[in-house]
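Need Molybdate-anion transporter's 3D structure for a figure. Predict it.
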Amino acid sequence: MELFYYLVFGGFGAVVLALELSKTSRDRISNTPTDFNSFKNNYLLVYSLMMGMLSLSLYLISKVINILAEIAGDWLQGPYVYYLYSQYGYGKGEIGQLFIAGFGSSMLFGTIVGSLADKQGRKRACVTYCITYILSCFTKHFPHYKVLMLGRVLGGIATSLLFSAFESWLVAEHNKRGFEQQWLSLTFSKAIFLGNGLVAILAGLFGNLLVDTFSLGPVAPFDAAACFLAIGIAVILSSWTENYGDPSENKDLLTQFKGAAIAIASDEKIALLGAIQSLFEGSMYTFVFLWTPALSPNDEEIPHGFIFATFMLASMLGSSIASRLMARSSLKVESYMQIVFAISAAALFIPVGTNLYSFEQFLVPPSNVKGGSISFSGCIQLVGFCAFEACVGIFWPSIMKMRSQYIPEEARSTIMNFFRIPLNIFVCVVLYNVNAFPIIVMFGMCSIFLFVASILQRRLMKIADTQTSKPQDWMGHKERQLEAEPLNA
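Structure prediction for Molybdate-anion transporter:
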C-alpha cells in the first residue's frame, strides 16, 4: 500500500511539471518590464518567508503522532502543538480552550488591526505581524497556561494581519507604481505557487527534520519560524515603501468600521465576495483538522508528513492552472470559480459517500482491527482530498484577483478582516463542539457550504456582467451623508 502514496505524489508532481513546461505565450503574462519584475520578486520573497512560517504551523497541526490512547478518536489528536501542550501537563479541555483562543482573538481583534493597517500604514502592519508572531512563537517555551494563552491570542491577531495587510500593501503599491492591472494576476498566482506550495513542502520536510531527525523537540519549528520572520522584517524595512488606505486625519476606528459596513451593505458584489470567502475558508480550515481521522478511522498507519507534502503539491497544481486561466483576458475569474466550488463540494462529499456505502464489503473484507495500512475507501478519500487541495490552489489567487477588483482601497484591510469574522465564529463553534457530530456530518456540512458558494459565485458573475467592476465611492457617499444629517435634523 506504500506504493500508492508514491504513485499519487509522483502523479501530481509529473502533472505540475508538465503544466509548467508546456506553458505558451497564451498561458502566461509575458513581456513585463524590469521594474515590475523586481517589485514582484521582492514581494514573493517576503510572502514566501511568511508562508513558510505558516506552513510549519500547519504541518505541526496536521502531523499525527499517536501518543495518548485516550485521545485516539479525537480529530485534534496528536499534532506537535497538541503534543507540546500535553507535555506541559494540560488536558483536552484546556488544550481545546487554547485552540479556541487563537481563532477567537482573530475574530475579536481582526477588524481592529485591519483598520489600523489602513490608517497607520500597511508596511507598518506587516512588520507588526512579524513581531507579534515572533512573540507568539517565544511563548511556546513556557509551560505556564496564561503564557500559552497569551501566545494563542497573539497568534490570532497575527493571522488577521497576515491575511489582510500583505495583500493590501501589494495591491496599493502595484497601483501606485502604475503597473497594469492584469499583472496582479501574475503576482498572485506565483505567490500561491511558491508560498502555499513549494515552500510549504520544504517547510514540512524541515519541520520533520528538526523534530524527528535531530530530536530537537516540538518547540524547534517555532524557533525556526521566528528566524524566518526576522529575515522578513529586515527585507520589509529595507525595501518596502509605506502606503495607506484612508489618508484623512479625522477618521477614528469607529468611523472606519461604519464605513466598511456601509461598503459591504451598499455593494452586493462585496457582500457576495465576503460570503463566498467565508464559506470556502471555513470548509478549508475544517478540512485541515478532519483529514487525519478520516484517512485513519481505525488508527491505520499513514505517512502524515508525506500526505501533507502531497496536498501541497496538489495546491501547486491548482495555482499553476489558475495562472493559465487568469492569463487569458477573455476568461473571467467569476466564470470558472463557480465550477471550482462545485468540484470542491463533490471532493469533500466523498468521505460521506464512502462511509454510507462501503467499498470494502465488495473488494476487501471490512476489519475493525486497530492499525494496519490505509483502507481502500481511505485511498479514494485521499485522491478526493488532493482534488480539494487543487481547488484551494485555484481559489487563493482567484479570490485575491476579485478582491483587488471589488474592495475599495480606502478600507481594504478593514473589509477583508470583516470577511474573516464569520469564518472565525464557525471554526470556534466546530472546536467547541468537537465531539458533538460524527466526521461524515462535518464533511457533509462543508460540502453544502461549498455548493452554496458555487451558487453565490454564479450570482456574483451575473452582477459583474451587468455592473462596472469599479468599486463604489463609498467614502464620498458616507461623507455626503454625514454632511446632510444636520439639514435633516
